[in-house]
Each structure stands twice: as structure tokens, then as C-alpha cells.
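Re: weekly structure request thread

Next one in the queue (356 aa):
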Amino acid sequence: MKTARQAAERLMEGHNVTEGEVLLDLEGYKISVKSNCEKLLEKLGVYFAHTLGHGSADCQVVALDGPSPKMGINFTDWKREAGKTGRKDAFYDLEDARLIHKVRTGMVFLQSQDYLIASGPSLSNDNQIINYINAQYMNHLQHNEALICHAAGLVANGKALGMAGFSGGGKSTLMLHILAHDGVSYLTNDRLFVQGKNAQGIPKLPRINPGTMLHDENLIALLPDERCAELKNLPAHELWDLEEKYDVFVDDVYGEGKIVSQAPLDDFLILNWKRDSLEPCKIEQVDLTQHQDLLAAIMKSPGPFYQYSDGTFFNDDTELESAPYISALKDIKIYEASGKVDFEFATSYCLETLLK
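Done, posted below.
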């Protein structure tokens, strides 16, 4: 197997795609999703309801539900980011494409300029299909000189606030505390793109751990009663570190019309606070050129699905450069939250100062 076409034929073998489709319209960039599984299309239609459009697509994703495909190749593990452990992604580069294998689920993805196919137990791993669809939009944004940031985003009064934090820093928790207030809209949870003075989000709903839900009156009802009782008995440090993800359907929880796709970016808050700090939380404006250590919270690898416009791929040993981030954020006011973790204080500060 050497080419994208050969890989596509292997993945499509034995599968019949239905006539239906889900078509996303993302700021004019349209993605068609087809499948052999109507139930999967129904789930994707619900998930992407706020983005649905019509017309001809710019690219087509095919999501096949079935057993994990046997490709007859030896995948290479993709290097995890600092602080991450365990095997997650593996890849195999063809002449004109890349195959990505999700180690934990057995899903296989074909990324190429001519074929975009996901195959494996897609219905039970629909979040990976959602991520794959979003990967195509993220590629499009980056081809148009948007810079990827590991950040959440909110919008109020016609301007966006980006929020980044070091691993486990609580940016999603803070974002949802602020989102619960009137006049605040959701932009993005984990991938924010900066293009000029504009911030753009992707159609990915907040995906959070139960610790965030347990202490938020808007979210606790999303937990099954039995699981909620179990979680309440866990020590605080175990609850904070627990990896157990739940999707938050923003319109259902916070009301319709709370999702936006882009807005002018004025401010960026970096959460550099510590759980074990005894110092009161404080938020101060900083000069990013003088605090480049904070860039590590913002910089984000494009990942194994990123294909450059010339057809080549991003590699896991490619060093991320800080200069593009410093340049992209040079006209954005940067704030640092330090001291102890204090969601109440940070929420008030964002609402009363950064989103005014």
C-alpha cells in the first residue's frame, strides 16, 4: 500500500455509504459528512446543529462504522506532548497521504488531499469523528494564515477574550462559570485561532471532566445520580485529575443563541495559578515579550492530521516557534492570573474588566 487511493479502496471495501449527509457551513467553508451508518449521521446532525447549511461542499469526510480495519502496516507512535503519558496516536505516511491509528479505540483515519475517510467503531467513538471533521476546518484555517492556540474563548460586548492555562489549569471550568452570565457567548473550548485581530473558534462543544460539573449548578444535572454520589466521595486532588469527559451542549444548558464563530480579539488571560498556592489570586497585565515562559500555555502543535497546502504533513519532531505567537499577539492585551486557584475572583474580574 503506497498511495491514498489504495488506502481508500482498502478502507471502503465491504462498506456501502447511505444517501444522506450532514453538511456543515463554517464561515463559508463547507464540509460534507457521509456514512454507512444513519444513526451516526443523526448524532452528528444533533452535535453540529448550530452549523448546518446546504449547497456544494469544499471537502467530503466519509465516516464508516464497523470493525477496526486491518491495514497490514506497522504504525509508528506519535510523540505525546510534554506532561502527557500513554499511547494515543500512531501514524504511517504514504506517498501522498497519512494514515492515523487511534491506539485506544482502533479507529483508522486517512488524511489526504483527495480522500478523507474514517473507519472503525465510529458510532461508539463519535467524538473522534467530530475531532476528525474539525481537523479539516482547522487545516483550512491554518492554510489561511490563522494561528492555532491552545485556548478557550468567550465573547461579550462585541469582543473576544482568549483563555489559556497550563495542563489541568481549569480554563474550561472558568470559561463555563463566565458563560453562565447574561450577555456572554461561547466561542471555543480548546482550540482558538488568531488571524489578525480576529479570534475564530471551531464547532467543538465544551468537553469537560466531572470535577467541573460537580461544583457547577448548571452542569451537575448532566451527571447520572449514581455517578454523582460516587464522585462526591473522592478526595479533591483525585477529582481534579480525573479524566472522564462529558459534552456540554451549550444551547441546551445556557439557552439558544449562545454560540458565535468569531469576534475581534482584545484580551488574552493566561492561568498561571497553582492549586497548592497560599497567595491570593491576582490578575495583572503583562508584556508577553518579557514573560515568554507563558507562551507554553498558548502554543499548540497542529498534530498528526495537519496537512500543509502543498500536501506534505506536520511531523511530531517539528519544533514550534514562539516568534509567530509573539507577532500574532503583539497588539492583544495579555493578562496573567497567579497565586491560588480562585474561580469566583477570576470570573468577576473577567466580567467586570476584560469583557466590559
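Residues 126-143 form the longest helix (18 residues). DSSP finds ten helices and 19 strands in the chain.
Next request, please.
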